[in-house]
Design a protein that fits this description.
By secondary structure, the protein is α/β, with parallel strands linked by helices. It contains 13 helices and nine strands. α5 packs across α8. It binds S-adenosylmethionine. S-adenosylmethionine binds next to loops.
Amino acid sequence: MPALYDSIGAGYETLRRPDPRITARLHDALGLARSVLNVGAGTGNYEPADRAVLAVEPSARMIQRRPPGSAPVIQASAAALPFAEATFDAALAVLTVHHWPDPPAGLKEVRRVTRGRIVILTFDPAARPWLTDYLPGLAALDEAQMPPLEVYRTALGPIRVEPLLIPYDCVDGFLYAYWRRPHAYLDPRIRSGSSSFHALKDVDAGLGRLEADLDSGAWQSCYAHLTGLEEYDAGYRLLVSDPVGDPPDR
Ligand SMILES: C[S@@+](CC[C@H](N)C(=O)[O-])C[C@H]1O[C@@H](n2cnc3c(N)ncnc32)[C@H](O)[C@@H]1O
């Protein structure tokens, strides 16, 4: 079956670059792990250069766009990881689980091949960042495709959940990264960096309202509290899972 990102991944490597503050959080969460499996690795964002990383990615297009010197990569799906039990010290999965055909089965597969910690960056579908005020279809899409945090608990056992606040100048252009740069959502090139905008139909009316509110100053009045913030809780969550029997904190 053709991988989704073979068709929607154009420009990914320019629009979606690792943000150094998010990189630091993820690498810190990986603790002392020496070998790391990066599942749904894409173009290699957030892969630690100081550890033995092996990447898994189903999309040939994303694999081709990995920069020279990136970690080795295997074309495969989280649904069936071609590794023996407990092969890796740790695993990383960044903004990918919602794309897997069967998230609970994929999470169990990641646990099978990982002897230590699993670190996941995902989005809590219960969150309602301001953009959903203009595009309620995004909230519906988030609820339909983003696994609730309970799915992770059921698949992996106890998890530590930490809010990942998004800096106002976030380098990585994922969906809600532009929370303090609302004009960015009017740019189709920027929107193309998020799979949600590829999935969402009929954004014109909502974006038209956003543009009008930005022009009139209504957005600035309504969301004045955002303009003073350096970071925002847009709903992104860092999940840390240790093997059952280990305490969920370090
Ligand atoms: C939003 S990108 C994230 C890529 C990378 N982790 C990053 O942070 O830039 C989602 C990735 O998940 C991958 N993906 C989709 N289905 C997958 C599956 N069944 N197993 C593993 N990865 C998958 C996509 O091909 C894509 O590269």
